[in-house]
Amino acid sequence: MYDFKPDASLDTAELYRQLCDAADALTQGEPDAVANMANVAALIWEFVPDLNWAGFYRMGANAAGEDELVLGPFVGRPACIRIPVGQGVCGTAAADATTQLVEDVHAFPGHIACDAASESEVVVPIVRNGKVVAIIDCDSPTKARFSQGDADGLEKLALLLSDRV
Ligand code: SME
Questions:
Q1: pTM
Q2: Among candidates 49, 48, 47, 68, which has minimal Cα distance to 59?
Q3: Nearest Cα residue to atom 2 of ligand 1
Q4: In the chain, how long is the greatest CA-to-CA distance?
Q5: Beta bridge partners of 134
Q6: What is the mean pLDDT of each successive set of 10 residues along the chain, which is 165 residues long?
Q7: Nearest CA to ligand 1 atom 3
Q8: Residues 2-27: pLDDT tens digits?
Q9: How big is the CA angle at 157 (ends 156 and 163), to the nearest 5 degrees?
Q10: Contact (Cβ atoms closer than 8 angstroms) between residue 40 and residue 75
């Protein structure tokens, strides 16, 4: 049994330090990407307060063989399965290989609403050998829920996972 008990009073940097330690312990030596993403989605859900969705999209291909994001393991409501690169918050993070910190999803051009409860969102690319291989997506029902500290913490997690997903 894995029993990670995040302390609700942790500051953001310490919370993500502990989350990364737990993710490292759970994924180290495990070659199965889906298993690793499933466990890390569950960890994000346990550690990060005030979320309504946490999970992954992986880089796959559309019918024409072009890059396209495909839904991966997550916690939350069922979500859109495929997101073209360049569309929505996730597709923008994938296209630009940059973190998207969105205070108000309704103000983001092309935002894709998978859960009507979502008000803010942070999306971080996972890069391997210079290519985006997946993204981490967290949604919150609270406007401006995510800070630069959340983005920094999730970027550390993305780095840790770059050769494990
Ligand atoms: N809102 C995202 C879509 C994914 S869901 O939030 C899970 C976007 O605009 O790309």
A1: 0.96
A2: 68
A3: 112
A4: 49
A5: 58, 126
A6: 76 96 96 98 96 98 96 97 97 98 96 92 98 98 98 98 97
A7: 112
A8: 777 777 788 999 999 999 999 999 99
A9: 105
A10: no
